[in-house]
Give the backbone structure.
Amino acid sequence: MTRNALAASRSPDAARLTDGVTRPAPIHIVVNGQPVPCYPGETVATALLAAGVQVFRRTAGGQPRAPVCNMGVCFDCLVGIDGRTNQRSCMVRVTDGLQIEVADDEDKS
Amino acid sequence: MMKTNPETARHDLIVVGAGPAGLSAALTAARYGLKVVVVDEQHDAGGQVFRQSPRSFEARPNAALRTYPFGAELLAQARNAPGIEWRFGSVAWGVFHGADDGRVKLAVSGDEQSCLFEGRHLLVATGAYDLPVAFPGWTLPGVMSAGGAQTFIKSQHLRPGKRYVLAGSHPLLLVLAEQLLDAGAEVLEVAIARPRPGFGELLSHLKALSGHAGLIGQLGKTLARLRAAGVPLRFGTMVSRAEGTDTLQQVVLTDVDADWTPIAGTERTLRADSLAIGYGLLASTELARQAGCEVRWAPAEGGWIVRHDARMRTNVKGVLVAGEPAGVGGAELAHLQGRLAGLTAVDEVIGGAMPAVGHEAAHEAVALERAATEASIRAARGFTDSVVRFFAPRLDALANLAAGDTLVCRCEEVTADTVRGFIADNEHVSDVNSVKLACRTGMGFCQGRYCQHTTAHLLAQARGRDVSELGVFRAQVPVKPVPLASIAALKLPD
């Protein structure tokens, strides 16, 4: 399991806001094989950040990348989605059971 | 598998972009009975400025709707508009012209299908994006655009990060600072590059501010909120670099002079997990440029912007432009320009200067509406121009932030040294496209959106020439990456 995907011990800097918003019942996406709770209407990028994922992908040169523009322009939030590589996670909404592949940081540690 | 609609769908007006400009054009045209389709990559109407919460959430409306009351009306009308076809979650990636009938064709791909829309008019209302600034460390996770951080908060109700530094020169930064505070983040500093405005300068802008009391009041409240929270707002301060292993750990800020040149010995380091960058906006003109629209260099208005006439027509027959690609001017101007563009499309259908039989009343109504809209645009212009001048980014100074090993092109990982080296070794090169071909800046996923202007400024500095003389990256089909299958699936005109 990736260090940054789901480490429960680590409190993520990102947080879902609760003031003034009511979310529907949660669903799960599957990130590198592990279930991650999220809410219908969220984008994959949101679900990953909320789960504490900090590195979404690595470049050919090994550099870490994560969302920058959150509007489909920067292409740095690319992840694998349901077997398709290099999908913009900020543009795709979560669905139950959606399979996500993010950078595996085991290699780095 | 990719499904393709073999029938080309015919419309009077195809709109790309469901922000204020696109919505306003679509609603105007539909009101006169035109057949309209609106294409947008997002999942709902509003564009970036009015980006809404997911429909599955119960949330208070986007705060921008309080600043721009017309926005709520646009969204409400859009929800209930008969006669408008919506294609959300869809990428518009190429404009083609049929030799046969003079109609404009637009290639669009969604998740499951791609299709070719055919229209009498195409409106490019593709908005703008945050100006990318290539400073050392700008690719580190935790460094975001101000707009990116803001849309996570306001539409996804997610606070991405906890301890923030904000650096830039755009008023959006102040709005973001307040939203971050409301979201429970720590805002360590708001660093504004321009010098603190003097009394005389403020006075010269006051004239333009009349009629925008709501906006000014909002800004006053925001400043008070920052003061109360003890957030330092420092002018003459710019980002120097971002540092960290794998993720952002600290931000180095520096004092700058009036030309945004760093002052030696003034660097300060702040420990932060997030850095939001807001030095301005770049107009999204790729689709317009691919369509063949002429652009002009207007650095204070979003870089290369699309030339147009008073009716929002470009040089390409049937292609209209409105909003930020026509010159960054904000939501109010965009929505008025969108209406003008919509009226231009209506005019064509009802017979222009020679109204077709049965259209005389509509023709008169269009003329009246156009005159009223043009008057509103003149009124809005004073304010917009003033704001644009006041906050204009110093693109030359920003390009100087790149150190030798800083990536100019994030996608293809091309450093400033590589670009500067190529420019130095090839004295005859005087066009950004030559740099692109040789260095691969602009040949990656984002297709130059993030490196075009840094590349251009490095070339301009080396040659001692103005950016306007060095060309603009060619925009090619597809203007955004789409699966090969969706290109193959369409019978594209030659």
Remarks:
- Residues 1-7 of chain B have pLDDT under 50 and may be disordered.
- The first strand of chain B starts at residue 3 and ends at 4.
- The CA atoms of residues 94 and 319 of chain B lie 13 Å apart.
